[in-house]
């Protein structure tokens, strides 16, 4: 790729050479100077707003104020920019600048950086040195597609904040926040937390998947609320804490009112039993093997406690179907017309995943060849992507040399 060290200066140069660019691919270069550039841009822009306020009031501009009212966009027509692996470490002081220099951006590719959090689009930059009471410019007002794989996101609050953007597509993987949960659980939580998503990790989000993800999310939050209400001195404090941690909880409770009523009733019934009896938390489930060596066995019906861990369920399936635990793929569905949900966290319980009375649990076996094939495909895709980026960079260098001649 191009050996760019002064990223912002390069953007300024490109904007003069190619003012009508619509797509810009600059992955694997250095854009560490975007922080200082963002601060300068912010100061100039805010001072420009001050000049405008003075002019509106028929007052002369303050000393040292710039002549222009606003900072012009470097790329007025740019809709896509790829800054993957460019050393970006802050959304507020680096990424947000891109919205100012290219206000029409609708696709932002930021894979393999170290961005730790994402603020709401209306939040001002905390790094600003100025303390001016000015209306904050909306950040990325046209953003519809965002790629954040391989960053340093550690809090679901960043995912919640994406609701403040007009986001319809997200690529989100290999972040610390999802390190200890499985792929299906991560997908389900992300869908439930971002109401506008239509595509997640290149896979469409269908209506049924969204509905079941949101209901599953509500079950988890309801359990959290129940535990907090039991432990906190005040129920109001518990509800306030849960609402802050789960901003969509109130809205989803209305959308899925019937399901919420059933969940509330189940939790209340469990509480009345004071936890001493397992009867209130016992589930009647059917376990079916789809593994080649045991798929002819009759499904077995079991009464299991909701507190049973997935690890214990694996051990049970090993005894019944003679398949080692590390070779098992467990999933369940609430009803025959429901989507399968994978039980992919051994430390969590059946209740945590939302397994309810009457659910069907399926045991399949790991597709070793399929995993190897998928790994090879991912490696091939990565090589093809790198080759494509190098080709784009080469074309850009050639165009630059031609212009300078």
What does this 3D model show about the protein?
- This protein has 405 residues and is an alpha/beta fold.
- The chain has helices at residues 7-17, 34-56, 91-101, 156-161, 183-193, 207-231, 235-245, 249-255, 257-272, 310-321, 350-353, 368-404, and strands spanning 23-25, 80-82, 107-109, 145-147, 169-171, 199-200, 203-204, 282-289, 300-305, 328-333, 341-342, 360-365.
- It has a 7-stranded mixed β-sheet with strand order 1-2-3-4-5-6-7.
- Residues 42-48, 65-70, 124-135 and 265-280 have low confidence and may be disordered.
* DSSP helix fraction: 40-55%
**Residue-averaged pLDDT, rounded?**
80
List unreliable stretches of 5+ residues.
Answer: 42-48, 65-70, 124-135, 265-280
Beta-strand segment tally: 12
Can you tag this structure with a few keywords?
single chain; 405 residues; alpha/beta; seven-stranded mixed β-sheet; five-stranded mixed β-sheet
